[in-house]
Amino acid sequence: MTEPDPTPEPLPEGYRLLREAPDAAEYCALRRDAGLSERSAEQAVGALAASWAWTSVRAPDGTLAAMGRVIGDGTWYFHIVDIATHPRHQLQGLGRAVMRDLIGRIDAAAPPHPYITLMADPPGRRLYRSLGFVDAAPSLGMLLPR
Asked: Where is each N-acetyltransferase domain found (predicted)?
């Protein structure tokens, strides 16, 4: 991975931005606590191992306050997922810091014009739009229910 951005997004005092994955239990707990769909320990292990990049934010007490990751091929296609901030740590810019770090790492590693996507749930849409994301119309995100 690339070196840290020389001008990272400022964090509140005592918070630390790390380019590492949380452990499986923390990942599952933060997804649940932030209102994302719950995942099994087996799914968490796969997510931890197979991601292109991770960014975590630790609170002053060392607990996981926010996270996000990128999946993709590392050259053209990048999909940002699992952007989550614990409710106790929201409205402090942690999600923005995670997003800016991940986007900066993509920009540093990819050839020109990478395809960066995400699925925007209602709570995150304002943040994503403020970072330049637009609706992908006429494309439409789809899933195969299981």
From this structure: 13-146
